[in-house]
Amino acid sequence: MARVLVTGARGMLGRRLVEAFSLRHEVIATARCASDGVLSLDICERADVAERVARVAPDWIVNAAAYTAVDKAESEEALAMRANADGPAELARAARASGARLLHVSTDFVFRGDAREPIDESAAAEPVGAYARSKWAGEEAVRRLLPQAVIFRVAWLFGPDGKNFVDTILRVAREGRPLRVVADQLGSPTFTADAAAAAVAVLESGIEGTVHAANTGVTSWHAFAEEACRLAGLKAEIQPISTAEWPTPAARPAYSALRNRVLEEKLGLCQRPWQEALKDHISRKSGT
Ligand SMILES: NC(=O)c1ccc[n+]([C@@H]2O[C@H](COP(=O)([O-])OP(=O)(O)OC[C@H]3O[C@@H](n4cnc5c(N)ncnc54)[C@H](OP(=O)(O)O)[C@@H]3O)[C@@H](O)[C@H]2O)c1
Q: How many domains does the chain contain in total?
């Protein structure tokens, strides 16, 4: 049994990581503010990070804390950099000092978006936009300070906690409001529970370096929305639109589907297709 310190434990992925690691390990959950069972830890505060890590003496540190407001980051790049690059660097320093292993969560958005087939861990990153640059800077800082760290990339997250695309689509569809969804951005939806289970397997296996952990399959936001409505038994007219028809402050990659080559080849772990995970998510929510 390992002692695992999880940061960002109240986020969408953080909650599932706490749940998944708790099945077999001792978990110390931390978030920016303390509350029942969760200790306080702002990952950007060097002294606090060093002290918390020294006190807890974790075997593994799992970093799910991040600045995740993709569009807002365009006007708050310094804040995004602080949380997504400086914070992970502090964790890497503390992990190095204490001998802990570090798994740092990152994103498909580090890719430019011009690939034509699912992108594996060896592909070169070329982040576009402030959020993407900050996440890439975090990856680079962690690699430089702790080369044996795991950079764990996920994509298009959905799950039972927090605001996410699936829940927004289902709410609007239930309200009978019209839906227009971008059909020319392709990616790999990822169920937070599946990603969390993969994170446990990765740390238990001793794998180092970059690991992709999306659900398998490639889809557009539009087809993702249609499948969510179909599985929820909702009849909704969803108009496919282009990225140009839905302008956002931050540019998003047109194609960022991930291939989990390391999980598959080194661990023999094949993530299930996103449609199966989505079905699971929707049936858990409706209690069926
Ligand atoms: N959501 C996606 O679709 C997606 C896709 C690909 C990759 N990812 C990556 O997956 C990871 C988890 O994302 P998520 O969607 O679960 O994010 P989330 O729900 O926004 O959770 C992030 C958590 O980090 C906390 N946090 C922010 N700054 C912090 C700091 N300085 N110290 C401690 N905690 C801090 C936030 O707390 P506050 O509420 O106090 O700010 C929040 O609870 C991130 O690395 C993200 O980049 C997400």
A: 1
Asked, for residue 286, whether it belongs to a domain, the answer is no
* pLDDT tens string 138-174: 999 999 999 999 999 999 999 998 788 999 999 999 9
Separation of 88 CA from ligand 1 center, angstroms?
A: 12
Q: Are 231 and 279 in contact (CB under 8 A)?
A: yes
User: Percentage of residues in the chain with pLDDT exceeding 90?
Assistant: 97
Helices 192-205, 274-286: crossing angle, 10 deg rounding = 120
Give me the percent of the chain exceeding a pLDDT of 70: 99
Q: Which residues are catalytic?
A: 131
How wide is the angle at C-alpha 34 spanned by C-alphas 28 and 40, nearest 5°? 60
Q: What is the pLDDT of residue 162?
A: 78
The ligand 1 site (C-beta within 6 Å) comprises 7-8, 10-14, 31-32, 42-44, 64-68, 83, 87, 105, 107-108, 135, 154-157, 162
Is the overall model pTM greater than 0.85, yes or no? yes
Find the domain containing 7 and state its range.
3-158+190-215+258-271
